[in-house]
Design the sequence.
């Protein structure tokens, strides 16, 4: 239920180009992707190092997780051999100490072929 609500809210925010303190979604795209690179930082400015990330694809009118991974020691990562027929973005998400933390890359990829840098997202405490 939470994922359905989160997806609906993020989709609506993205369509309107609205950002909140808890979630930042920027209306923007970069060139098409067969590989995406990205970075994340905590809202405090430190790197989101060695934490979980999720590759999401725009399918059936919503963002759906298609792969998971972890950032490296610099808070960055790459998903290779990604589908090129859908838009892609990366989400950082984790639960720790009874709190949840989320963030998204500021850009998504267009459909087609090639590599894309999705920028650096910020991870905020959402609850």
Sequence:
């Amino acid at each position: 239920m939470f994922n359905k609500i989160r997806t609906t809210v993020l989709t609506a925010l993205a369509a309107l180009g609205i950002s909140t303190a808890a979630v930042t979604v920027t209306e923007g795209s970069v060139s098409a992707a067969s590989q995406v690179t990205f970075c994340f930082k905590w809202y405090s400015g430190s790197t989101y190092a060695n934490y979980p990330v999720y590759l999401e694809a725009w399918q059936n009118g919503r963002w759906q997780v298609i792969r998971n991974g972890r950032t490296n020691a610099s808070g960055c990562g790459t998903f290779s051999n990604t589908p090129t027929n859908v838009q892609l973005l990366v989400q950082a998400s984790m639960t720790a100490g009874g709190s949840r933390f989320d963030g998204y890359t500021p850009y998504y990829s267009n459909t087609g072929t090639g590599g894309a840098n999705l920028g650096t997202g910020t991870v905020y405490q959402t609850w």
User: Anything to note?
Assistant: The beta strands are 29-30, 35-42, 52-59, 62-70, 76-80, 88-96, 99-104, 108-109, 115-125. Helices lie at 2-16.
